[in-house]
Amino acid sequence: MWRCASSRTAILRQNSKSIHQIRCHAIDSGKHESQCQEQLIEIAKKVCKIMRVRPRWEQTLLSDFPPAKFLSPTLFSLVINQQNNALLSLRFFYWLKSRPGFSPDSLSLNTLFDELIKANQCTAAKSLLQNTEFTPNSASLESYVKRLSENGSIEEAIHVLSQLKARGICPSLGTWNSVLLSSLEIKRTDFVWQFYDEMVESGVVADAETVGCLIRALCVENKVSEAYELLEQVLEDGLVPNNLAFNELIKGLLRSRSYVKISRTLHAMIKINRAPDIHTYGVIVCGLCKNGEHIEAFRVFNDLKDRGYAPDRYMYNKMINALCNSKLLADARKLWFEMIEKGLCPDDLTSNTLFYRYFKVGDLEEALLLYKEMCNRRYRKDTVSYRILLMEFCLNEKVEEACDLFEEMTRKAITPDLITYNTLISSLCKKGKVVESINLLQKLLAQGLQPSPDSYNPLIKGLCHIRNIQEAKRLFKDMQERSIRPSHEAHESVIIGLCKVGLFEEAMESIVAMLNYNITPRKETFERLILYLSRENRLDDALLVLESMLEMEYALGGGIGHSLVEKLCKGNSHVANHFLEEILVRN
To answer: What crossing angle do the helices spanning 2-53 and 73-82 adopt, rounded to 10°?
Structure first.
């Protein structure tokens, strides 16, 4: 008995010792794992810092740390969690992937994929999927679909959506709405209806956001009546779309001038506590302006201000332009100053329209006062405002003032456009200042602008008028070399100019060239050419020109016809009689 007891005691002591050893080993093992984890955390922190500050860290990273540490999936996961740059994390992954023996776990890859989606790096996320065999979880794929949709990559979103459906996963309502909205933003209403049908087939019930997308899609397709009926139906069902859907519907109703339905829609908005906001009224004001209902638009605009709304810059600009079009310049001017007082700087188009309209109605004094006011308020003058003022000076034959204004543009580094150059060239030529006009053409070319026929026509005409036919011919040739087709006026100016200096052979060649260009000379050009040829006794040429003129069914003027007959009668009376009969028949 004693032996048995002693034996049992020995066994118990031995077991107790073994248990103690196991416990010690477990504690040592836990300490070791904890130390390894802490070591990996420190390495991850240092790696993240190195990647942020060292441009070519891939070349030196292995020498900074024990290479074996990089084979641990845990380190990869720690770096992703600590790194605040998704693209750097992806770059680290590709570097790890190139190391023999590295095998990432799916959880870490999914974390990296999520980080790329959060950073809106869809292209990088797609690259990750293509370069690995892992499949993100359903939540990650839905986030990917939403992000692709927001970025307008609808076709790619469709592909990912099909992957979800293939796995038997029905996307959430939020994902469907995201795809519907993005399809709508790129005007792909066909996608809207395709996705909506798939959504219904999947058993997902539409909400107010879905309905809003459908209403807007119908408006885009100009099915405004259907959109209006859908709104009435969903309001009865208790679904209230956002104001954006209401605004699009009102915009569509304005296009069809359905003012009664607009009124009902506004009342419905108020009734369901979806009060029209400034954007809603902005749609109404701009729509009325577009429809030519300027007085009604102005009434609504003033009513908005009286009720405490603050119209934005866009509304003011639209309203001022509408008032200008209705010639209500006093009201437009008042709004223009009102904008400035409220800190809403009018855009260039609005200011220039108001400026131009005063000139258009002949109120040069008021236009100049407005121009000075613009200058006093340090309003930015641009090429268009200078052009308008310069054109009006030219129209009123104030060429000196126009030239001064042009020089002011140059001093203020405001680049004149082609219309400005052409206007001033034409006005200078009318005043006989051809040399100054040629200098302007040289500036135009030096500025790199592509000249037009209107850049050359006044110059060629002016040069021919002062009998500088060689310079006119040079400019004519320059037009052709620049692939600018000489105009009707340029051809005729050169023909008459050649006649004035006695170059009749060239004049005849020029009129033939004009006809080859399929440009029909005017009756006056034919008559003047016949007159010049007759005076120089070039009767054969005169008769040829007359024949061309008669073929074009022009009637020869009596004075020129009489002069030509007299010249012919002094020569061959038979020929004279023949052409006299032709002239009488044609006339």
So the answer is: 50
What value does the mean pLDDT take over residues 504-529?
A: 83
- Cα 21 from Cα 28, distance rounded (Å): 10
Q: Which residues contact 325 (CB under 8 A, 6 or more apart)?
A: 294
Is a pLDDT exceeding 90 seen at residue 381? no
Are the CB atoms for 545 and 529 separated by under 8 Å?
yes
Counts of helices then strands in the chain (DSSP H, E): 32, 0
Residues in Cβ contact with 367 at an 8 Å cutoff, skipping those fewer than 6 apart: 355, 358, 359, 389, 392
Taking CA atoms, 360 is separated from 171, 175, 335, 347, in Å, by 61, 55, 19, 20
Task: Kindly provide the b/e burial profile for residues 36-57, where b requires at least 16 CB atoms within 10 angstroms of the residue's own CB.
Answer: eeeebeebbeebbeebeeeeeb
Report H helices in 326-433: 329-341, 348-360, 364-376, 383-395, 399-411, 418-430
Structure tokens at 167: 């796995």
Query: In Å, how far from its chain's centre is CA 421?
Result: 27
**Other C-beta atoms within 10 Å of 223: how many?**
15
Tens of pLDDT along 413-443?
Answer: 888 888 888 988 988 888 888 889 899 899 9
- Name the DSSP class of 238: T
CA distances from 222 to 189, 399, 474 (A): 11, 51, 56
| Phi, psi dihedral angles at 62 (to 5 degrees) | -65, -30
Report the b/e string of 138-160 with b at 16+ CB within 10 A: bebbbbbbbbbbbeebbebbbeb
Residue 99 DSSP label? S
pLDDT digits (tens, 9 = 90+) for 151-189: 888 888 888 888 887 777 888 888 888 889 888 888 889
Q: What is the mean pLDDT of residues 288-308?
A: 89
Name 37's Cβ contacts closer than 8 Å, sequence gap at least 6. Answer: 74
**pTM of the entire predicted model:** 0.57
Give residue 3's pLDDT band: very low, low, confident or very high (50, 70, 90): very low
Comparing CA positions, the residue from 7, 76, 14 lying closest to residue 47 is 76
Shortest CA distance to 311 belongs to which of 281, 332, 266, 290? 281
Highest mean pLDDT among 253-267, 519-533, 559-573: 253-267
The mean pLDDT of 307-327, rounded to a whole number, is 87
Q: Give 96 or 245, the one with higher predicted confidence.
A: 245
Q: How far, in Å, CA of 68 to CA of 178, rounded?
A: 45
Q: How far apart are CA 533 and CA 564, in angstroms?
A: 9
Neighbour tally for 60: CB within 10 Å:
10
- Written as six digits, the tokens of 166 are 């293939």
Rg of the chain (C-alpha set): 42
Q: Please check the confidence at residue 449 and state whether its pLDDT lies above 50.
A: yes
Cα–Cα distance, 357 to 426 (Å, whole number) = 23
The Cα–Cα gap between 355 and 148 comes to: 47
Average pLDDT over residues 282-311: 89
Residues in the chain: 587
| Token pair in block for residue 414 | 């405001």
Q: In which residue are the tokens 């087939």 written?
A: 201
Q: Return the pLDDT at 2.
A: 39
- Around Cβ 191, how many Cβ atoms within 10 Å? 20
Angle at 484 between CA 478 and CA 485, to 5 degrees: 110
